């Protein structure tokens, strides 16, 4: 969203030397970029957006003239915003010098404006402050909506009426989930388009910017050994796992209205699934990749209640420390039934994947933090070494693990003879461990990436269709309550059979 020098945006190569003053070719005026992080008091802004903006600044990817404004309802002075932001900035990317100085320089460009999300007056005041910083240059404005989706339209309306650029571009980055279901997603698009053109809207899914997710198609399409195995003929099941070892921690204002299915499954995990399972695209163009992803998603039957198990984390004590339950969070309404965990089995009805379960698990406050893709291969037919494994044939199957985070790695579990006398087999890993290969993972991708990593409307629709039975009810809690009771006994949940024999 920040790219494009022509329009007074960024240099194409990011380095201090290459940072240039963008000058408009017709007016000869210098230009500036003003970035407003709407929802700046929140979790996403603190954890990801400000650190990513700092990483861009550090690497010389922001133009010479830029200003960053935080905007939210919480009252905060500029200095308080800077203190808040400074706690999350790191120089972990590399050990280059002057990191502390760079942080200072970055923080000096950060300001805060408190306002309501539906107040044109408050946005008009923001506009006044932005103009002071833009100092008569051509102004390009980016609004990053780091807020719950139900207030996107209010913000876009106020920003476009009272704070859009009069002489440069105005762009908006919107976060997932894009709506609550197909209908609200379509309504959201319609409403946003009252104020913005399609090319001003950037729908972001930051999982698409994760290094190992980007690497998925490289792994498949540029290595001869994987693609021929990539089908029902050799693959027994595929697991897509998202697990966090911390709870919602003050994010109830957003999370409680959406739940884990909308927060993680409908977007991050279905995006990964589509990339994993799509046919070879005609080219690497965003359009061609998107077409293949849409085809896969449209070949999937919508999830039925029998295909999913849900849950909510409770309080527990470990090592003498008591961790709160989801409903103990002050920002979560008392008695909330919003799911914080879900496990689902999905199927793709096409020639390549017919009958292969794609098992998704997503949860908060679980015992580990990880995001992984695990590909479990079938048994070797008539395995000569069956006896070497005893009766535990499951141990003899190959598994490819793509560990998206933390400690990024790709490893393949293969069977191996244990050295020594006799013929005993064991599984070993062929391991591409990123840290060991000194491959560092940059932070700034989500803000820096081009259109290939942003989302198009039809992908949204296809993904909401798959989740339709789970999110269609006007009151999702009702659906979830019924289903929760239904799944209380393990034997009631047909889908659980797909998880049998699957490592946790
Ligand atoms: P938060 O709950 O932290 O909300 C962000 C800010 O929005 C809050 O600080 C609050 O600011 C305001 N807000 C919260 N709830 C409401 C409400 N009900 N009505 C009006 N304003 C509200 O959420 P996150 O920052 O975690 O998420 C924001 C968006 O970012 C979501 O769409 C989420 O899907 C997406 N996202 C989050 C990620 C993360 O790691 N957290 C990662 C990727 C995407 P104030 O009260 O000061 O106005
Ligand atoms: C966001 C969700 O999209 O992704 C959060 O809204 C979640 O609930 C976050 O914590 C996880 O992102 P990451 O990059 O930290 O795995």
How would you describe what is shown here?
The protein has 504 residues and is an alpha/beta fold. Helices cover 30% and strands 21% of the residues. It is built from 13 helices and 17 strands. The chain has helices at 43-58, 78-86, 99-108, 120-134, 152-162, 182-192, 211-221, 252-255, 259-277, 286-298, 445-448, 457-471, 476-486; strands spanning 31-38, 66-72, 110-114, 138-145, 170-175, 201-204, 235-243, 308-311, 316-318, 321-323, 341-346, 358-363, 370-377, 399-405, 409-417, 425-433, 454-455. The strands form three sheets. An eight-stranded mixed β-sheet has the order 8-11-12-7-13-14-15-16. A seven-stranded mixed β-sheet has the order 3-2-1-4-5-6-17. Helix 4 (120-134) packs across helix 5 (152-162), helix 6 packs antiparallel against helix 12 and helix 9 crosses helix 12. The longest helix is centred in the middle third of the chain and has 19 residues, at 259-277. The two termini are 39 Å apart.
How are the secondary structure elements laid out?
Blueprint: E1 31-38, H1 43-58, E2 66-72, H2 78-86, H3 99-108, E3 110-114, H4 120-134, E4 138-145, H5 152-162, E5 170-175, H6 182-192, E6 201-204, H7 211-221, E7 235-243, H8 252-255, H9 259-277, H10 286-298, E8 308-311, E9 316-318, E10 321-323, E11 341-346, E12 358-363, E13 370-377, E14 399-405, E15 409-417, E16 425-433, H11 445-448, E17 454-455, H12 457-471, H13 476-486
Parallel strand pairs: 1-2, 1-4, 2-3, 4-5, 5-6, 7-12
Antiparallel strand pairs: 6-17, 7-13, 8-11, 9-10, 11-12, 13-14, 14-15, 15-16
């Amino acid at each position: 969203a920040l790219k494009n020098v022509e329009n007074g945006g960024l240099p194409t190569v990011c380095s201090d030397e290459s940072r240039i003053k963008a000058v408009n070719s017709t007016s000869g005026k210098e230009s500036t970029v003003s970035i407003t992080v709407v929802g700046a008091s929140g979790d996403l802004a603190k954890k990801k957006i400000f650190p990513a903006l700092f990483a861009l600044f550090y690497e010389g990817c922001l133009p010479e003239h830029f200003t960053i404004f935080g905007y939210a309802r919480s009252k905060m002075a500029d200095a308080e915003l800077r203190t808040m932001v400074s706690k999350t900035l790191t120089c972990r990317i590399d050990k280059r010098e002057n990191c502390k100085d760079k942080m200072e320089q970055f923080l000096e460009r950060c300001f805060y404006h408190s306002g309501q999300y539906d107040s044109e007056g408050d946005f008009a005041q923001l506009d006044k402050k932005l103009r002071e910083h833009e100092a008569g240059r051509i102004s390009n404005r980016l609004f990053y909506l780091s807020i719950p989706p139900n207030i996107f339209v209010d913000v876009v309306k106020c920003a476009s009426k009272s704070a859009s650029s009069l002489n440069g571009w105005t762009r908006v980055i919107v976060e997932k989930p894009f709506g609550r279901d197909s209908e609200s997603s379509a309504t959201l698009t319609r409403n946003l388009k009252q104020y913005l053109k399609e090319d001003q809207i950037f729908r972001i899914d930051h999982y698409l910017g994760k290094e190992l997710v980007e690497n998925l198609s490289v792994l498949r399409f540029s290595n001869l050994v994987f693609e021929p195995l990539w089908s029902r003929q050799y693959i027994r099941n595929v697991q897509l796992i998202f697990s966090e070892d911390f709870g919602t921690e003050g994010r109830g204002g957003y999370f409680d209205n959406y739940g884990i299915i909308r927060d993680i499954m409908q977007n991050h995990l279905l995006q990964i699934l589509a990339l994993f399972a799509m046919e070879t695209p005609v080219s690497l163009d965003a359009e061609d990749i998107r077409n293949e992803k849409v085809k896969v998603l449209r070949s999937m039957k919508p999830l039925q209640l029998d295909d999913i198990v849900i849950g909510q984390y409770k309080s527990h004590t470990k090592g003498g420390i008591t961790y709160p339950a989801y409903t103990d969070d002050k920002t979560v309404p008392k008695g909330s039934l919003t799911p914080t965990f879900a496990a689902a089995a999905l199927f793709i009805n096409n020639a390549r994947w017919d009958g292969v379960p794609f098992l998704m698990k997503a949860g908060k406050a679980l015992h580990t933090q990880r995001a992984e893709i695990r590909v479990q291969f079938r048994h070797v037919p008539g395995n000569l070494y069956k006896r070497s494994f005893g009766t535990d044939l499951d141990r003899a199957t190959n598994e490819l693990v793509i560990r998206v985070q933390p400690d990024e790695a790709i490893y393949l579990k293969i069977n191996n003879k244990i050295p020594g006398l006799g013929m005993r087999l064991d599984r070993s890993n062929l391991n591409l461990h990123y840290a060991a290969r000194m491959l560092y993972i940059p932070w700034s991708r989500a803000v820096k990436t081009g259109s290939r990593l942003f989302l198009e409307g039809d992908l949204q629709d296809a993904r909401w269709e798959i989740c339709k039975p789970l999110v269609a009810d006007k009151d999702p809690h009702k659906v979830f309550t019924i289903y929760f009771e239904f799944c209380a006994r393990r034997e009631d949940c047909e889908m659980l059979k797909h998880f049998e024999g699957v490592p946790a």
